[in-house]
Amino acid sequence: MNKKILITGGMGFIGSHLAKKYLESKNDIYILSRSYNKKNNIFNIENKINLIIKDVRKINEDDVKNKDYIFHLAGTVDNYAIKEDKPYKDIKINCNGTIALLEACKKYNPKAKIIFGSTFFVNGNADKLPVNADSPCNPLGLYPATKLAAEHFCRIYHNVFNLDVIIARFTNVFGPFEDGNNKKKAGFNFMINQAVKGKEIQLYNNGDFVRDYIYVDDVADACMTLAEKGETNKVYYVGRGEFTKFRELINIVREQIPNTKVKVITPPDFHKNVGIVDFVCDNSGLKKIGWTPKTSLEDGIKRTIEFYKK
Q: Which domains does the chain show, CATH number per domain?
């Protein structure tokens, strides 16, 4: 049976991939986006979806009514607002926007299944890896702090109003249709794009740290699995669950683009203050309900390189 699906932030990196996946099975897709700035991400599906252009804080009855699944992916995407003297930006979008969505669902669609897109950054620098849902949270910046607050809002609305909410904590996601010119967000995509352009890659600490990178199509598949089989009020980590040194990823890029130059640098102080050193997640919760990543890191990197070459 076809579903009615709302994706806030649906023109964004993960949201646009999710929309395309759902269209393959002829579902009714509604994308809510603050602006048309990322319209290129949906250029090939725009005539097959319903577009809602508004700030998520203004979400209303018409937007949520009769939707089966609601993916709340609208939000800030990096730690830099506080550095740019915009400390309230994360609060307005991540906190106020999430409350607005929960209120609309409470009033007009309390039976909808809501998947909230959060981030592994809520954990900060973990003492023990891999991280799981019971690991302590110690966010180091306003972006993850407000995402964690929004997670708590979701739990409160579940406990008080019985809303069906699931938390999806994404690890480092990479792949096509990410902005390859923005080094504040998706640094690996930025590096791949730099290599494609023949420019030097600047690598923090020789890539001698562990991260849990995952290809965007696998993240979209995980979101769909959570909507169908996820347990309400539960946290799921969306990552490969593999210990991978970052320099191994850069080596794959260099194998594909042999003349790539790499310069090892020391991270700036701001990055040291808000960034995470090592991270790997425990994705067993997702695997128990039937999901597994299908795209290898090497294949994902190859596809991303081909995208930026176009």
A: 4-174+212-241+280-294 (3.40.50.720), 187-209+243-278+298-309 (3.90.25.10)
